[in-house]
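request received
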Amino acid sequence: MALRSIKNRRRLPSEAELTSMVVPHLVRFGFEVHLEVGAVTRSIDAVLVDEQGGTTAIEFKIRDWRRALVQARDHQVLCERVAICMPRRHPTDELLGALQASGIGYIGYDLDSDDIELAVAPQVTPAYWSTAGDALRERLRTEDER
Amino acid sequence: MARVELEGLPWHMLRYGIAREARYIVDHWANLDVLVFAANSVAHMPKAIATFVGERGIDAFLIDPLTHSFQHPPTFVINPDTGRIKSSVDKLATAYGGVSRVKAGREPVLPEDFRDETEIRTLVANVLDFQTSTIQGHLDNEGVNEYLEFAGLGDRARPAALVAPYFYMQATTIDDWADVNRRLLREASSRSEGFSLLAELVIDRDVLVNDEHIATLLRVYSGGLGHDGVLLWVDDFSEDSASLQELMGLRQLAVGLRDSGTPVLNLYGGYLSMVLCSAAGDRVLAGVCHGLEYGEDRAVVPVGGGIPTAKFYMPALHKRMRYQEAIRAVRGPGWLTAPGTYFENVCGCGACRRLIGMDPNVGFFAYGRTTTKRDRNGRAREYPLPETRENTLNHYLEAKAAEWDFLSQATRDDVIDGLLRAHRELRSHIGLDEVAHLEIWVEFLRSL
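response:
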């Protein structure tokens, strides 16, 4: 029985696979999506730009949510909103507490239904620095022109 | 000819890292006393370093012989891209000869390789010869020495002191290596007439928390072997992550040596070591050295290498921070609201004054600009722009000079007040982890 349950366990995607599964949904919601955006000592997995020009950084992670939070926290300086995205519809209680304390959002991806859910909405925090945010937008514009 | 005592202590020393740093060293040389070269760098590019010393006004230098390179498993000196021994270490092995040449890149040198005094004599003779003749020889070839003699600068190609060969000791290996190191030092002492001689004591941090090990080190290094001082290198020992117990061990060792007439110079140290060089720190140390991009601590292995990262030296915390953390530290208390506020609370060095100018936000961003490069797996990585590196290096060196100035007048209470103020003002913005070292330093300084 135990052996069968191990065999039936679904293989988790890689970060790159998770990204490619989630991005079409984000585009469908009307976001302009930029992948692997270089910005101040760290690269951001994805930056979403909404119709008003607002920016949201997404950090994709398969397992290690603590590491995702460290990286996401760095992105709060650069983007108005920051979320992590993991292949699990809802965050655990421990992660939920950490997200609420830091204003970081959570996007859950359901592997079975190929659907995403904004389980925790990201907040604009005082960490956001418009000087760095403007430089990031400028970098996105330059990339677009290229 | 007798040996020469160390002059002008305490020394503010800087470690030469890579060639592109050379101009920063020249620009800030007036604030520094001694430049430290790694022997593998000298072996790798002797002509460039000799020319730099001879023509750019570097009037005091040392060469760290890096003999420990040969005691580690070969993987630590192998170039991962080629699978072969790093060329700079290979050249060093050729210069040092003996067992270093035989074993380099193949197997580690062991204490028993030095059972025979011939091996001790060979290593010492070649290591000291390397320090006295490599730079001199290249200056002779280039005709620069002739000019230096003419200009009355004939001593420029001479090291400020010689450094005896040494091997790294952990708590588990100190009994194996201490006697080899003692014999190397004794032999070096008999071969260094006309120079000052420094022992290099390279240890694991575990040694600092063991009274018995400290007693062993004091027996070996407290004079008696004729050396004039000790260069101390504690493996991967960052002052801002050190425990109080480790700092107490450091003090016990340094005071024991100092009181026996052997000054101790910390080869990798930061602000706390600088305090220990001053009256506020009871002059426990006689010098401190730090690198540029690679900061104020260094692991013994791997030998050489490392990727530069954009870090900002935060004077209030006396440590380099990841730029994102520095942003929080500076913006949290509102120190970017006006130039005057920034200069008063963050830094008033020349580099900051040039950048911050009219708009502190725009100016401070110049310390964090990066460019994206792809690694071999195609992943994007951020690297500081050349101008970012220039800004952070100039700021770092000017901030260090300001710290030396401050410490030349400061009392212990002045130092402690500054540390406590930073702890109080920044902890709620960047968290306890980033400021905790300040309280440990205060407790340590109060115990002096």
